Amino acid sequence: MKSSTVFLSLVPVLWFLSVRVSAGPTCGPCDPAQCAPLPEQGCRSGSVLDSCACCSVCAAAEGEACGSRVLRVRCGSGLECVRKKKSGVCGCKSNYEVCGTDGTTYRTGCALKSASQVAEAEGKEPISVQNKGRCATAPVIVTPPGQVFNVSGSQVFLSCEAVGVPTPVLTWKKVLNGGKKKMELLPGDRENLAIQTRGGPEKHEVTGWVLISPLTTEEEGSYECHATNSKGEASAVGAIHVVESIDDIIVKKVTKEDEL
């Protein structure tokens, strides 16, 4: 009677174990002829062997799921499976920007590799890493100097922001009156005028100011912000206007169209 009781008590345990074993992956003899073909357009992140090391399957690309117990997918070359609870997501092992031979800046080397595979699938030249960091670009004035109106004796400034790779060098010039467009490089010998420059606020960006205190009629006129680097140059012009009274100062009203 005791033996039959022990046998019955083992039945649920054996059944549970059999379920656990049958639920796991099983690998029989490898027959490549039974493997499903890879997509005709190729795989974004190349191919890898499946969990049984038999068939070639598409590797998971950056941002795709990987490594869960149910989804036994491996990441492509240069990627790693970043665990998030029970599953994971493929992420690039490198996290810095790279410049491709196509002149495009890619967020990571993995993004460049994916773009190269797409290019090759379309019959174009493959893309390789030209250098770490962003691709070299000519300067662009992102915030030009504006129009300033104020009375004599006040303190005023013009500002300018430019971006480029390498980071541009910023200079200021005052447009002189005359038949031809002549420039005076600032600050010159003016005691009431100063030039300031600093990097930022974004990477490869530079910000510069013309500071005038006190303002006189001699400082009235147009001012050019000039940015240059090894790839080119760019410029933009602002102006300072001296008015007789504070009532003559022009204040631009911001409309909904300006905000958009």
Automatic annotation (TrEMBL):
Domain Ig-like stretches: 139-241
Primary location class: secreted
GO MF term (any one): insulin-like growth factor binding
Domain IGFBP N-terminal per the UniProt entry, residue ranges: 23-93
Top-level taxon: Eukaryota
Keywords assigned: Disulfide bond, Immunoglobulin domain, Secreted, Signal
One Pfam family it belongs to: Ig_3
Subcellular location: Secreted
UniProt xrefs under InterPro entries: Growth_fac_rcpt_cys_sf, Ig-like_dom, Ig-like_dom_sf, Ig-like_fold, Ig_sub, Ig_sub2, IGFBP-like, IGFBP_rP_mac25
Any Gene Ontology CC annotation: extracellular space
Signal peptide region: 1-23
Keyword Repeat assigned: no
GO annotation terms (biological process): regulation of cell growth; regulation of signal transduction
Entry-linked PANTHER family: INSULIN-LIKE GROWTH FACTOR BINDING PROTEIN-RELATED, INSULIN-LIKE GROWTH FACTOR-BINDING PROTEIN 7
The protein's name: Insulin-like growth factor-binding protein 7
Species: Scomber scombrus (Atlantic mackerel)
